[in-house]
Design goal:
This protein folds into 3 domains: 3-102, Rossmann fold; 130-203; 206-328, D-amino Acid Aminotransferase, Chain A, domain 1 (2-Layer Sandwich), CATH 3.30.470. The chain is globular. Helices cover 24% and strands 26% of the residues. The protein has 9 helices and 14 strands. It has helices at residues 13-25, 61-71, 82-89, 105-112, 114-123, 168-175, 250-259, 291-295, 301-309; strands at 3-7, 32-36, 49-52, 74-79, 131-133, 146-151, 161-164, 199-203, 208-216, 222-234, 237-244, 264-272, 278-284, 326-328. The strands form 3 sheets. The chain has a 6-stranded antiparallel beta sheet. It has a 4-stranded parallel beta sheet with strand order 3-2-1-4, sandwiched between helices. Strands 5-8-6-7 form a 4-stranded antiparallel beta sheet, with helices on both faces. With 337 residues, it is an alpha+beta fold.
């Protein structure tokens, strides 16, 4: 018997389905409980039980989470929300919170700060684009160059702007209107925080963009890499992609697993330029929007999660995807009440 909590999973009911299937694939019974802020979340139509969660910054959140874990005898808890994962990382490492799939506070500090992360990756021998703070761009930077702005503590593509030929200053100013602090608060109006310091600027790398899952077991041991070539994007997420052989990316994935220790899967964005050099441009410590394309190509990371949590060995086929499978997302509707 294994009960699973999937938190902040409202608009990704496929994860609920896949974790339900994962229980069966491992010969286990149990319930998959979905939780979300939105009481009309589509995920409730696919879960065995649905819970309305408080905001992660609500003073009642920790008590709520602890009660959910205890009352439902949760053996495995997974979130796909950046701010919720930040809260999880700083909960005590005690038996009460054992079911949570989360990174350490040190790893969380890395993945939350894109500027610090770039430095840590460079130290580990992993190539990243040249990166500066919005209020620290070198005076001699070529103004007509191509650059990208992002929120330093970004989530959901906040502050994402592309420049081409001299409008970098405008892009930084525009990005500051929507980026947030580490706590998710709007940058503007936070008197102690210069808004421009919450924006990073990166050189634009021309090339082919890939998504990569770096999958570790629940103790943090490297398990596999899953890769796909991005075909198109929509609202900041991969919309269509083709699975590719991950062998070329496995050395990067192994170095990432050492430089950014984590249980479970983390999501990487990589651009390979015309010379074949791979640049890591972003990391998210959770199931990313690109994982479904690897799942549809044969991988089963939810199945592996359940196996590891139950003390079982996942099937080798769950930790690989077949190259050449093209998949796309589409709009669907479901009755929720």
């Amino acid at each position: 018997m294994m009960n699973i909590l999937l938190s902040s999973v409202g608009r990704r009911p496929y994860l609920v389905r896949w974790f339900r299937e994962a229980l069966a694939a491992n010969g286990l019974t149990g319930r998959v409980i979905a939780a979300d802020l939105d009481h009309l979340s589509p995920a409730q139509a696919f879960s065995d039980e649905f819970l309305v969660a408080p905001r992660v910054d609500d003073p009642s959140y920790r008590d709520w989470l602890g009660e959910v874990l205890k009352d439902n005898e949760i053996s495995l808890a997974v979130s796909i929300n950046d701010f919720e994962l930040s809260e999880w990382a700083h909960l005590p490492y005690t038996a009460q919170w054992q079911p949570l799939v989360r990174v350490s506070p040190a790893t969380q500090a890395l993945v939350e700060d894109k500027l610090v992360m770039c430095g840590a990756l460079e130290d580990a021998g992993i190539t990243t684009p040249a990166t500066w703070l919005g209020n620290g761009v070198p005076a001699d930077l070529e103004p007509a160059g191509r650059f990208i702005t992002k929120g330093r503590y970004g989530s959901a593509s906040r502050g994402l702007r592309f420049t081409d030929g001299g409008n970098l200053e405008d892009a930084i100013a525009s990005a500051t209107l929507e980026v947030t602090t580490r706590q998710g608060n709007p940058a503007l109006g936070q008197s102690a925080v210069p808004p421009e310091s919450l924006v990073i600027v990166q050189e634009h790398i021309a090339g082919v963009e890939y998504g990569l899952d770096v999958v570790c077991d629940l103790e943090g041991g490297f398990a596999c890499a899953l890769a796909r070539r991005k075909i198109s994007m929509r609202a900041g997420e991969t919309d269509r992609a083709e699975s590719v052989d991950a062998d070329a990316f496995t050395p990067i994935a192994e170095r990432i697993a050492e430089a950014v220790p984590h249980p479970g899967t983390i999501d990487l964005d990589i651009i390979v330029d015309s010379t074949g050099e791979a640049f890591v441009i972003d990391i998210n410590p959770r199931f990313g929007g690109g994982y479904p394309f690897s799942h549809l190509a044969g991988a089963d990371v939810p199945g592996a999660y359940v196996a590891w949590a139950a003390g079982l060995t996942p099937g080798n086929e769950w930790l690989a995807s077949r190259p050449g499978i093209i998949s796309g997302k589409y709009v669907e509707a479901v009755r929720v009440s």
